[in-house]
Write a structure and sequence with these properties.
With 81 residues, the protein is mostly helical. The protein is 96% helix and 0% strand. The protein is built from one helix and no strands. The model has no long low-confidence stretch (mean pLDDT 86).
C-alpha cells in the first residue's frame, strides 16, 4: 500500500465524517427554524390581539368623549332653566 492509497483513504474518511456532521447540523438548524417560526407566529397573534384591544378601547374612548360632551350640553341646558 502506497502513501497515495493511505492519503485517499484518509481523505475519504474525513469527507464521510464531514458529510454526516453537516447533515446532522442541517437537520438541527431546520428544527430550530421551525421553533422560531412558531414563536414568531405566536408573537404576531399576540400583537394582533393587542391591536384589536386598543382599537376597541379607542372607539370606546371616542364614544365616552361624545357621551361626556352630550352630558355637558344637557347639563348646560338644565342649569339655564
Amino acid at each position: 500500500m502506497e502513501s497515495y492509497d493511505i492519503l485517499v483513504i484518509g481523505l475519504s474518511v474525513l469527507l464521510a465524517v464531514f458529510l454526516v456532521l453537516s447533515i446532522i447540523v442541517i437537520v438541527k438548524v431546520m428544527k430550530l427554524v421551525k421553533k422560531v417560526e412558531a414563536i414568531t407566529d405566536k408573537a404576531q397573534d399576540a400583537a394582533d390581539n393587542v391591536q384589536d384591544i386598543t382599537a376597541k378601547l379607542s372607539s370606546a374612548a371616542s364614544l365616552s368623549a361624545i357621551g361626556s360632551a352630550a352630558a355637558k350640553l344637557v347639563n348646560s341646558f338644565k342649569k339655564e332653566k
